[in-house]
Every structure is written in structure tokens, then in C-alpha cells.
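hey can u check if this looks right to u? its 185 residues, i copy pasted from the old doc so theres a chance i mangled smth
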Amino acid sequence: MERIEALKIITDQLNDELVVCNIGFPSRELYHVNDSPRNFYMLGSMGMASSMGLGLALSQERKVVAFDGDGSVLMNLGSLVTIYSQSPANFVLVVIDNECYGSTGNQCTYAQQVDLTQVAQGVGFQNCFKFSDKESLQNDFHEVLESSGPVFVHVKVNAGNADVPVIDMEPQEIKERFMVEIKKE
């Protein structure tokens, strides 16, 4: 399964959830398959989608889904401890694991040697899900959305980036559009 396919499958199942997406190609791919004012596209700050999603979940009642990559989570492992310690019931962290730093040239990460689901369980996450094919992601992701958080979701995908154009919005526009959506609660 390709990352862009995983993003499409998951976002097709979302309703009113707020979404924070990891930097670079993941944000570009999400924008391409399912643009929404509910999506915040990170254009920088590698490793911070999980932290930003946590802050958002703690600040309001809507469910928040943060898409992060294996490289970003490995860069900010402390976020897993903080998410678990704060335990927002409305937070879902989806780690899309392609075993590489996809936005910087596909250099390998240690996700090849470390099972990120086991790391999350070791931190204390009670609700962990792991998907490695399109069919199970399509058929079973509803269980993720029905679970009380914090929820850790590990999605294994192939390395590589989809050939999609850059996001045609300025960072200020992305932020302002998202802020309007947050205030709709």
C-alpha cells in the first residue's frame, strides 16, 4: 500500500474530525486526495505533528487525528510519553511508517529495526492498532474512530512519494482557514 492510498482510505472515513498532517509529501498527498478546511498542513517543523495534535485535542472536544511519519515520531519520541501522560480521549495518532524519511530523500529510519507499536505499548498506550494492507485499513479503521483515546495507529506503507503538486496556499492561509474551522465547535 502506498502512503497516498492510506491517507485516502482513512480520510474517506472521517466526518467532523480535525486533522493535523506531517510535513512535506504527506501534507501534499493529503491535500491532493482530500483537501478540507479541517486539515492543517504542516509545511515545516518535522516531528511536531503529534505534539500539535495533542495540544489541539487538549484545547477542545472534537476528535483530532494527527498523521505523522515514522521518522518524525522517532525524532520526537518524547511526544508519545506526553500524549500518554495527558491521555486525551479525543486524540488519534496515526503513524504512517514507510521506514524512511520520505520528504528528505528516502533515507532509512530505525523503524526497520524497531516496532513502533511495541514502543507505544511500552509507553502505556492501551488502544493500539496496526494495519499493513488496504483491505484491513478500509474494513477496520472505524474501530479506531470508535475507541477512546489516546489511540496509537501504526500503518505500514511502501517507501516513496506520490507525484502530486505542491499545496497552492500560503502558510498564513492554511492557518487562518484552519482557525475558522476550529472555532466552529
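The mean pLDDT is 91.
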